[in-house]
Amino acid sequence: MMTAMFGAVESGVIYAIMALGVYLSFRVLDFPDLTVDGSFVTGGAVASIMIVNGSDPFIATIAALFAGFLAGCVTGILHTKGGINPLLSGILMMIALYSINLRIMGKPNVPLLAEETVMTKIDNWFASDWSILLFMLVVTLIIKFITDLFLKTEVGLSLRAVGDNEGMVRSFSANTGWMKVLGLGLSNALVAFSGALVAQYNGFNDVGMGIGMIVIGLASVIIGEAVIGHSSIARATLAVIVGAVLYRMIVTLALRIEFLDTGDMKLITAIIVIIALVLPKILDRQKAAARKKKRLQQLGGNANA
Amino acid sequence: MLEMTRIFKVFYEGTPDEKIALNKVDLSMKQGDFVTVIGSNGAGKSTLMNVISGKLSPDMGTVMIDGTNMTNLAEHKRALKIGRVFQDPMAGTAPTMTIEENLALAYNRTKKRTLSLGVTKKRRDFYREKLEMLHLGLEDRLQAKVGLLSGGERQALSLLMATFTDPKVLLLDEHTAALDPSRAELITNLTKEIVDHLGLTTLMVTHNMQQALDLGNRLIMMDKGQIIFSATEEEKKKLTVEKLLAEFQKIKGGGGLSDRSLLS
Fold first, then answer.
1. Could you give the strand order of the β-sheet that contains B2-11, starting from the edge strand earlier in sequence?
2. Per the database record, which ranges form the ABC transporter domain (chain B) (predicted)?
């Protein structure tokens, strides 16, 4: 049980980078970007093929980041220059990337178990059970702080404003179209970076491993916000990381239930997201009812009045 | 400063709903002119604003600002020379961002956006100083989210954001219409103060005839996409609401029992 939980936290921290990407598109830009399902695998594909062909795993992982950036930019251009609806541009890009990923990989599954990856290197350097977790935690936190800082720059501010009030930023001379392209590029860069690390962590890259990734990202963002809150940018990004780890832990716990098996993962994910979305509304309603009751008592009336 | 020549704009052309929103409109404003625009709903006032700001492009005609032909420029490029305040207090600000972040966005209107911080200590002092001009105490709430402000406070902030970077042309689109009378008066006074202080070339649309008479040095009245009446500085000084209504009746050919309701 402890080993399973440890693994859950470890992979949660790696998936947190993907969740930060989803936070950028879904929350900051207010753009539900389904490209994620494809770009996650693109990251893994680029990194694994480079590693198999003898590249340094760190360089391969960085290359994945740029591949993801390009994929996100294409989605952005489809939407802003092509005038395609946000959801549809993401779906189109997701489908297109499936074939592109197969082309990059050459086959549906690239094994990395015999290769030197970022994970094996870190294991060799520090030789501790904690090395991967701590290293990934540092990487994820660095990305978090860079994201926080970026969202406070002049460019970052206008990026946030695009998701908040597009007409207003345009009236202050920001090119909202290119802002969206940039935002989606950065978002998918993080997603692909995470995909490259997950492939190396799992020891293989599979063309189907991105299915439902956007929902996992959303689950992380929503769970995190429910637990930590999102009153400031720094808090919201921290919430996303915590949410990603919590999500992995919940899934690990759920899989221990006898009649559930690994094939039920996507169903569990969907149910977690539904609960996370619906529960706050039910709680709010109950609170409102409790307040009403309290007021009525104060006024000396009875609750049925 | 602002030159509009022979502007035509038709909506739904070739359908039964065809509407000529602007019909050969000419308007010329000198540096420092403050023109108020009145007219009933559908007269073409908002279309006129949108054609200047670039939200709509005219079917024909040219828009020149400060000697530059703006007709074919995208909205965000024109924004380099134009400050705008909208009717809806929600429209001019970003609600989930703080007051200082909103001001930082506005500060960049005329400058290229870079990767330097939008809110620095020096800039914060500058923002605070500007906010003091509003006399609303917003200078002590720099880190409050704009979504928490009242409609009047937001509109005052929008006005400041549109003007503190010295736009060549200021567009005010019924910017007090959504406020209660006392807030509307506050914003009207602020508008007067800021425009006088900076000498801004301003075009203001309003449904309030008294406001149209109180503010500005020129007045135009629009109907069915045309400027049907125009008062120069001297003429405007002598105008009253009654005279304006009489003028409207004369042009429309009399018989208008509902003229007041049409205009106001």
1. B19-29, B2-11, B60-65, B68-69
2. 2-249
Residues B52-98: tens digit of each pLDDT: 998 988 888 899 998 888 888 888 888 989 999 998 988 999 999 99
- Residues B95, B117: Cα–Cα separation, whole Å: 20
Per-residue pLDDT at A27: 93
- The structural domains of chain B, with segments of one domain joined by +, span 2-263
Q: Which of A157, A173, A175 sits opposite B109 (nearest CB)?
A: A173
Taking CB atoms and an 8 Å limit, are B116 and A171 in contact across chains? no
Q: Which residues of B touch A161 (CB under 8 A)?
A: 94, 97, 105
Q: How many domains does chain A have?
A: 1
pTM, whole model, 2 decimals?
0.88
Domain range holding A159?
Answer: 2-209
- Which residue in A has a C-alpha nearest to residue B80's C-alpha? A173
What pLDDT sits at residue B253? 65
User: Which residues is B20 bridged to in the sheet?
Assistant: B10
pLDDT for the residue B256: 46
pLDDT the model gives residue A302: 55
DSSP A257: S
Of B77, B94, B117, the CB nearest to A161: B94
Residue A286: both structure tokens together: 């109950």
Structural domain contains residue A255: no
* Among chain B residues, CA nearest to A159: B105
A157 contacts in chain B (CB < 8 Å): 97, 101, 104-105, 108, 118
Residue A42, in any domain of the structure = yes
**Residues of chain A contacting residue B95, judged by C-beta atoms under 8 Å apart:** 164-165
Model pLDDT, residue B34 = 92
Mean pLDDT of B114-143: 90
Structure tokens at A93: 């890009």
Using one digit for the tens of pLDDT, what is the confidence trace for A5-26? 898 999 999 999 999 999 999 9
A7 token code pair: 């693994």
Q: Smallest Cβ distance to B76: which of A156, A160, A176? A: A176
Q: Search chain A and give the residue with CA nearest B146.
A: A164
Half-sphere exposure for A252 (CA within 13 Å, toward CB):
18
